[in-house]
Amino acid sequence: MKEQEGVLEQIKAKIESGDMDCVKNDLKGQFEKIIGMRNEAIGYIEASLDLKELDNIKVRFLGKKSMLVGMLKQTGKLDAKDRPMFGSMVNEARAVIETAIQEKIAALKAIVSERSVKRETLDITLPGKRISRGKLHPMETVLSDLKEIFRGMGYTVVDGPEIEKTEYVFDMLNTAEGHPARDEGDTFYINDETVLRTQTSSVQIRTMLKKKPPIAVISPGAVYRFDEVDATHSPVFHQCEALVVDKNITFGDLKGTLETFIKRLYGEEVRLRFRPHHFPYTEPSAEVDLSCFKCGGDGCAFCKGEGWIEMLGCGIVHPQVLANCGIDPKVYSGFAFGVGLERITMMRYEIDDMRLLYENDARFLNQF
User: Fold this and answer.
1) Pick from 56-70, 169-183, 214-228: least confident
2) CB–CB of 293/276 below 8 Å?
3) N or C: which end of the chain has fewer CB atoms below 10 A?
4) Strand partners, 275
């Protein structure tokens, strides 16, 4: 830095020696401004603690709107003989400030590098860190068990699109125009012909359109409905529906299948209760309740004193639904039922808030 101070040191020496020529021309005043600005810049640079602060200092003292640039614009107002000396003074001050900034940048980077090395140093004598291993989500565990149960009974797992034709979600399932399920307050419409499926029954329609009986399938997957999020509702949840179509299928086959499924999932002591109900796509239809796991049917807080817990809906496939899919209802019959995956998971593990299944809190999931 000292090698670049030649001109400034010369002027300083002339002023201190009383050189009158230097006093007469206005270089003394300009010199004092430049020296003051240079010393101010050096002070800020030496006190700076990070690169961002240094960048601000550079803009302040060397930028387009800095005092140095402003001084250079005033060169034309000086006597012609003073201009070379004045320009040298300004350029030298600029060089001194730039050099100081570069030296400070190098010093700060060295400090950062040293800290990084110390921080990243590996002490091989320390014990290893315990790596947390993941595990299956409780819903995935229940779904896997559900698939295994039905595969053991000869069912095939099928899938279909979540963005579905209104025809497959409603029309072919006997859900006519004006039915509450088709209301925009219950269903996410993309347009008049397309919706986010409200049930996986649409997969059953696709299956019957592609395949001739005998049919035995389950269709697990996500479904969408216009529900507020609370302990028992969500706009996105999961269902698993089952469909069987063959000759001479009766309600007795449906009851036997459900009893086998439920007892394998929850244990032999669980009892089922069928209540008459109505669904557009099955006739007759029923809702199925299970005896409470905690009280065995006596009534407790878990079952709200009822002794029974609502589980699923089911029924014999409506003849018109079979006909819609090109299956002769005079030759074939079938049954169908659908169950919420969240519901059977919550019942299996006695979870009282559906939101816990979605929040991915490790403290909750590590219990399973």
Assistant:
1) 56-70
2) no
3) N
4) 287
Task: Indicate the helix (H) or strand (E) that contains 174.
Answer: none
Architecture field, domain 138-365: 2-Layer Sandwich (3.30)
Could you tell me the two tokens for 187?
A: 């269903």
Tokens (6 digits) for 352: 């009282």
Residue with tokens 């469909």: 243
> Distances from the Cα of 44 to the Cαs of 35, 66, 258, 291, 341, in angstroms?
14, 15, 81, 79, 66
Nearest to 90 by CA among 27, 177, 182: 27
Q: Using CB atoms within 10 A of its CB, is residue 93 exposed (0-12), middle (13-18) or buried (19+)?
A: buried
Return the ∠ at Cα 313 (arms to 179 and 334), rounded to 5°.
95
Average pLDDT over residues 24-35: 68
Structure confidence at residue 23 (pLDDT): 44
Q: State how far the Cα of 135 lies from the Cα of 140, in Å rounded to an integer.
A: 10
The DSSP-derived string for 259-284 is: HHHHHHHH-TT--EEEEEEEETTEEE
pLDDT tens profile 287-345: 999 988 777 777 777 777 888 888 999 999 999 999 999 999 999 999 999 999 999 99
Cβ atoms of residues 82 and 26 within 8 Å: yes
Take residue 185 and report the two structure tokens written for it.
């307050």
**Would you state the torsion angle of the CA atoms of residues 130, 132, 133, 136, taken in this order, to the nearest 10 degrees?**
160
| Peptide linkage before 284 cis (omega within 30 of 0) | yes
Rounded mean pLDDT of 75-96? Answer: 76
Q: What is the DSSP string of 98-143?
A: HHHHHHHHHHHHHHHHHHHHHHH---TTSPPPPPPPP---HHHHHH
DSSP 300: -
Domain ranges of the chain: 2-120, 138-365
Beta-bridge partners for 90: none
Strand partners, 164: 195
Q: Strands of the chain (E only): list them.
A: 156-157, 163-165, 189-191, 194-196, 215-224, 236-246, 272-279, 282-291, 308-317, 333-340
What average pLDDT does range 213-227 have in this prediction?
94
Mean pLDDT of the chain: 85
Read out DSSP for 44-71?
HHHH--SHHHHHHHHHHHHSTTSHHHHH
